Amino acid sequence: MIxxxxxxxxxxxxxYEGAGFSGWARQPGRRTVQQVVEDALAVALRLPAVRLVVAxxxxxxxxxxxxxxxxxxxxxxxxxxxxxxxxLPPDVRVLAASVAPLGFDARFAAMLRRxxxxxxxxxxxxxxxxxxxxxxxxxxxxxxxxxxAARQLVGLHDFAAFCRRREGATTIRTLxxxxxxxxxxxxxxxxxxxxxxxxCHSMVRSLVGALLAVGEGRRAVDWPASLLDRDRxxxxxxxxxxxGLTLVEVGYPPxxxxxxxxxxxxxxxA
Amino acid sequence: MIxxxxxxxxxxxxxYEGAGFSGWARQPGRRTVQQVVEDALAVALRLPAVRLVVAxxxxxxxxxxxxxxxxxxxxxxxxxxxxxxxxLPPDVRVLAASVAPLGFDARFAAMLRRxxxxxxxxxxxxxxxxxxxxxxxxxxxxxxxxxxAARQLVGLHDFAAFCRRREGATTIRTLxxxxxxxxxxxxxxxxxxxxxxxxCHSMVRSLVGALLAVGEGRRAVDWPASLLDRDRxxxxxxxxxxxGLTLVEVGYPPxxxxxxxxxxxxxxxA
Lengths: 270, 270
Known about the structure:
Two copies of one chain form a homodimer. Chain A is α+β, with helices and mostly antiparallel strands and about 270 residues long.
């Protein structure tokens, strides 16, 4: 038995393409982001194992450009990023590794998660260079209606109608932002920006599924909000495909408030 | 024999991911962009065959976001884009189809071709969501030196040192622009923007290969320009990989000048 020295907490900023992964969380016999990155870290740091705590446990096929995780390890070599570049497969990258400020916890200190869901409804179809990250939609979408429906969903609600049920997990969430707009000069992509302190399972893709029904004119603008505060998942809400969804940002409070935020999150979960 | 009616010239704007294609030009037994798009057009327009004339004959693995082609056909149905979306594979898209102005010729009326070559030298490696379109470089590059070397290459020169020889093709070209800069907020990608009226074979990737040698410090800033006006290809110049290169724009003169431009281009080629 080797005596363990003091550990330091390291913050990792990650990006990955979701297609090749069965989501973030380790599962026996599956290729997951957690497994691939933990294994590479163990080799790079010459440790028997490394355990990551992550901000957003993305589902199968969901991408991340702004994922954050932490691990507690004996040292942070200056060459870690270059080592990981050689060890990791090309569909996942550690963009930054830094000593975390005191009180930092990738999961419990997070204040907000920001996701983007992208849709292209141009008659010619989805840009081939963007097709892995953008949902193609075969009919024109009315973005004004979608934006109007989205505004009614913002705030503190029970989102049970939009969540896959998980034992013991609350479906009451504060949706901080849900914007729908055409992106960029060309307007070729519709981007749904979704921000909350936390999400329940499949919530973002269900919200987008409901907005798609509005954008097509199959449902009224008021319909998604009419599902709020139900006590169970609605069969009428489709779940939009995973490949249009990307975790783009995890937000943390200023360093001095990290500890208080962790206390607060843990207390709420307990 | 069906009697042919009058034909109209149609301009097509295309985008494709290069990885799955053996370049633009039709070749027996190879999957090429020309073959795939011509075949889809023939089905969509119920013609035995359609022949495309293209602005930029991209090589194997090179992408295009702003490719332009034309064809002469009996009619342009309003549903053509939607038909093509169903007929084309997802790695190529026709974004627009329009009746071309009088005198238009996708190849001979073009005034300039603009390419972008993208490189990422971050220690963590290439962004997984961008890796198909960006060359990863394992060592930091000095963008200032690259930009300085690039400036000396602009203008009318014999680029034979940077060209793969083709029988009867001139290697004297006017390089209108060759900029090297870090792109965007993060600066994670170095973008080389290359504009000329026309290019000889493998010229853009050879220019980038020479600039990479400067950026690494293996060659002096003056070295690429010292190769100008040689009479043959230089063995010292590496050809950068295809996947970092994208044809982003083809520029045409105002409609009233299209005919004159075509005359001028044809005269120069003859």
